[in-house]
Amino acid sequence: MHCLVVALIASTHYAAAFVSPRSDVDVIHHSHQLHTQYQHHRQSALSASASSNELESPRTLIRKGMQSFRECDVPSSLTYFDSANDAVADGSLRPFLWQRGISYYYLDMFKEGSEQFRLDVSVNPLDVEEIVWDIACLARINPTEYPPSTRMALPKGRTDRRRIMSTVYSLYRGDGASERDLAQAGHSGSISDEFYSLFYLGLYCEIRNETAKAEKYMRAAASSKYATGSGNGDYMTSCARVHCKLRGWV
């Protein structure tokens, strides 16, 4: 495997010279537009007394939401996920709608995203990614506090079954792992480990307001061997591609 992740770490002193194709002001404006689109789609779905959504199963609605997200239509994805949630009157589906939390993040609805991920952890306490995404939302809510004082943790003595995630977990929680540690873990593991290290390094740098580094990592994740090959159908590789498109990094 090429030393892609480690090389990115080594080249961060060149980050200041990188010019993003979209300014921070443009990104904020675009995010506002996406949020407005979601509100419009949501209202339309609620006001349609005989909408097609009412005739579709929650599974179908989730599938359509995931496809909309893959197509970078985040507002529509959230509308579908909301409709799936509403279709189960007792609320029992909601803790399993982790995709909804990701859509919330990309619509800058960080409070709602955190609430979703915390529900997810209540039924899946060993999944590090749910905890990490919650930390990302909390960091965006209050950028002056890192790591967030209200961050969640795995049950005592338990770990995520995926080895790469133990380093991701430690980095995001501030438990000792460094950016370089995660890069090296990705380099020494499988092609999926390389992708996940790049992806979560990109997300980490974004929530720490290190935009140039975030761009380099996320673009590398989206173009990695796993994302363009055997992992092309993995929802998280779609997430890397959508992330780059929304930030204007393509």
Summarize the structure.
With 250 residues, the protein is mainly alpha-helical. It is 64% helix and 0% strand.
Describe this structure in words.
This protein is mainly α and 250 residues long. The protein is built from 13 helices and no strands. Helix 7 runs parallel beside helix 8 (163-173). It is globular. Mean pLDDT is 86; it is low at 1-25 and 45-50.
Distance between the termini: 24 Å
Compute the gyration radius: what is it? 18 Å
- Derived from helix and strand composition plus strand pairing, the structural class reads mainly alpha
How would you describe the oligomerization state of the chains in this entry?
A: single chain
Global geometry: globular
Mean pLDDT: 86
Summarize the SSE layout with pairings.
Elements: H1 4-10, H2 24-47, H3 58-70, H4 74-86, H5 98-106, H6 110-123, H7 128-141, H8 163-173, H9 179-188, H10 191-207, H11 211-222, H12 225-228, H13 235-247
Structural descriptors:
single chain, 250 residues, mainly alpha, 13 helices, globular, disordered N terminus
